Amino acid sequence: MNPVTGLRAILDAARAEPVVREESAELLVQRRWISSVTLAVGSFMLALTLRVPAGDPAFYGATLALGATWIIGGLLSGKLHLGTLPGTTGPRGTRGVVLQGVALGALLLALFLAGAALVAPVQVLREPLVALLDHARYGGLPIVAALTALVAIGEEIFFRGALYAAVGDRQALLVTTLVYALTTIPSGMPLMVIAAALLGVVAGLQRRITGGVLGGVVTHLIWSLGLLFLLPLALGIA
What we know:
Number of strands: 0
Structural class: mainly alpha
Strand content: under 5%
Mean pLDDT: 87
Largest sheet: none
Number of helices: 9
Number of domains: 1
């Protein structure tokens, strides 16, 4: 699946009927209170992590705790699904979701790298990004990459998994995208908030059309890890 095909599938998803999973009232209540607690704890952990200075070993522990919070909270809320493309089942459907995620992740990565290159001369926008990347520059890049992947997986399990299910299909895309973007405000980086909103829309539409979190996980991993390794080049700090 090429990026154009992947993008077309997502645009079609915006107009398609969402995958609806009927759940009991008891499970819905469980999802909502667990999601509320997880969101509060996760938002606090994110704000705390972003305040750790570059090179401080505490960053590793804080990021690990952040990723674990999203994953544990998401899994405790109830059963989650990987999802399949419409009209497919089994391994074929799963492979289709993965290919779609790869295409969309590459497309988003290219978009944000191009945007970063454009804003690189603007110090007020560039400096917060450089400060964020300093954790990898002055720390252990392999460890930071592993933690980045953990948080990406955790965010999809929680926001497009547990929280999406807790909100309900009708308003889930809008609510989860807004909440996901709002959690990044403590970063003090407008570009991160915008990035979260765009990623939230894409991953949310993948959740809507596939009924699961796998597509969003693949997209998020490619986007996050790609930025970790390639954003310094776009900003001219490699």
